[in-house]
Amino acid sequence: MIQKFADRLVYDIFAIDSSTSLGQAVNFFVYDTVKILTLLFLISVIMGMVNAYFPIERLRGYLSSRKLYGLQYLLASLFGAITPFCSCSSIPLFIGFVKGGIPLGVTFAYLITSPLVNEVAVAMFIGIFGVRITAIYVIGGIVLGTTGGWLLGRMRLEPYLSDWVKQIQQNSASDSGAWQKEHTPFVKRLPVIMHEAMATVRGVLIYIITGIGIGAFMHGYVPEGFFEQYMSKDSLFAVPMSVILAVPMYANAAGIVPVVQVFVAKGIPIGTALAFMMAIVGLSLPEATLLKKVMSWRLIGIFFAVTCLCIIILGYLFNALL
Question: Residue 263 in contact with residue 231, Cβ under 8 Å?
Answer without folding.
Answer: yes
